[in-house]
Design goal:
This protein is mainly alpha-helical and about 220 residues long. The protein has 2 domains: about 5-20 and about 135-185, Endonuclease Iii, domain 2; about 30-130, Endonuclease III, domain 1 (Orthogonal Bundle). It contains 12 helices and no strands. The longest helix is centred in the middle third of the chain and has 19 residues, at about 80-100. The structure holds iron/sulfur cluster (SF4). The site of iron/sulfur cluster (SF4) has 13 residues, from helix 9 and helix 12.
């Protein structure tokens, strides 16, 4: 393990010992539903619609038997409700037809479900089955690259780097560490670097600091453009 990964893990273990999904769910099926709904949408908004949705559709049978229009009625306030309603109905049907109604624990199998891409499959496999995989969403992608845990330019490359860098037993947790840090501290616009405990190891922070020092000294900042 590199020194950077060791330091970052040490900081998270000391400062964020508990790191879990903020989506509410009460069964593997409902987690799949919630993660599908969370694409391009906040967990907060998803958590507002899922209580009534879960009550009406306690399992895949009820959802598979429903019409897309009925499902839409429960999720109209999340982003892309038309597509997501179609995906949910298709996911529930496929789950029944191909997996006996049981959410599979394998990332490749999970991706056979409509609406479930690689990121969603990784989230479900790690949260429900504690599989040693790391889902890379927009927060994980940004934070990993800023700190310097990956220089990858694609989601897959960042996933590969993080998978190599974090030991298997920490990968499910590392995903939540990076998401939560990205959501509340290392935000896309105006990251809160002055309040960030990871600043001593962060590549992006070093770059910002040296630019500021150059500007103060009257020299042209290297990344001013
Ligand atoms: S120092 Fe700034 S850029 Fe680096 S991880 Fe912290 S908030 Fe993000």
């Amino acid at each position: 393990m590199t020194r950077l990964y060791r330091e970052v893990i040490g900081w998270f273990e000391a400062n964020m010992p508990v790191a879990e999904t903020e989506l509410h769910y009460d069964s593997p099926f409902h987690l799949v539903v919630a993660v599908i709904l969370s694409a391009q949408c906040t967990d907060k908004r998803v958590n507002l619609v899922t209580p009534a949705l879960f009550e009406r559709f306690p399992g895949p049978r009820e959802m598979a038997d429903a019409t897309v229009e009925e499902i839409y009625g429960y999720i109209s306030s999340v982003s892309y409700p038309n597509n997501k309603a179609r995906h949910l109905q298709g996911m529930a049907s496929t789950l029944l037809e191909e997996f006996g109604g049981i959410v599979p624990d394998d990332v490749e199998q999970l991706q056979k479900l409509p609406g479930v891409g690689r990121k969603t499959a990784n989230v479900v496999a790690s949260v429900i089955y504690d599989k040693p995989v790391i889902a890379v969403d927009t927060h994980v992608f940004r934070v990993a690259r800023r700190i310097g845990l990956s220089r990858g330019r694609t989601v897959l490359k960042v996933e590969e780097d993080l998978t190599r860098g974090f030991p298997a037993e920490l990968r499910p947790k590392a995903h939540h560490w990076l998401i939560l840090h990205g959501r509340y501290v290392c935000t896309a616009i105006k990251p809160k670097c002055e309040a960030c405990g990871l600043a001593p190891w962060c590549k992006h922070f070093r770059k910002l600091s040296s630019s500021a020092a150059e500007s103060a000294a009257g020299e042209p900042a290297s990344s001013a453009e």
